[in-house]
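Q: Could you fold this chain for me?
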Amino acid sequence: MKKITIAIIFGIILLGNVTGINAYYLPPRTFHKRILLLKMFNFYSDFQSDNSFANVTGFKEQYGITDNINIYAKQSVFIYKKMGMKIGKGFGDMRQGIIFKLPGFRKRNNIEAIISLKIPTGYVAKRNGEISLGSGTYDTYFEILGNCFYRLLELRYYTSFVKKIGNNINISESDNFLTVAGHLFKGKVVLMSSLTYNYRFNNKSYNSTFIEELLYKFNRRIFIKAGGFIPVEENNIVKSNYKVLAEFYYFLY
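A: Sure. Below is the predicted structure, expressed as structure tokens.
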């Protein structure tokens, strides 16, 4: 029987942008053929507006069609959002895509291309007093993700171009991050320092964040990860007061 890997991931990721890719890939690579990843995540963001926050719970799946081609899907199954006196709760947007490992690269030094589409299944506010749970746009992502090693150090990099169309919106964005990771104590501990930079072309708004994360591997099956997010610079309309991260990984072979 072929081996099937099932990973159940419980997370609290406090991000203003819940489509951030940092938490979706560990490590940044395609899985082997017939390996399945199941992930549960929870996002929480506290906004600068008084008594305003968002909490998102959902699932992600990734499956290896071949060793070099994976498919994945992500669903925000429950969103609870509070903006002052307004409250919105319900199903969010869905995203699915395909991941290609580019030929000629090894497991520890690879580049992947990702094409994905977000579908606006979340509710979009139609009148005053309501809160949108989805963007109302069809978002097309073209992404490049990779990593390379030098002894105990690892460099991870990611860049994307995102086109958002629908609901009288036509927006182009770019999301990027650069991570330096140290693999310590024979790989049981991974310390990661990241800098993100997200840019919106239409109104030239941007934000950058410094992220410090620590991953601990109890064994091949059980991982935990925690991190802190420090805003470096923001000029978006909605800003976040704080962002923190905690995740639990379980692999079943």
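A (continued): The chain has one domain: 1-252.
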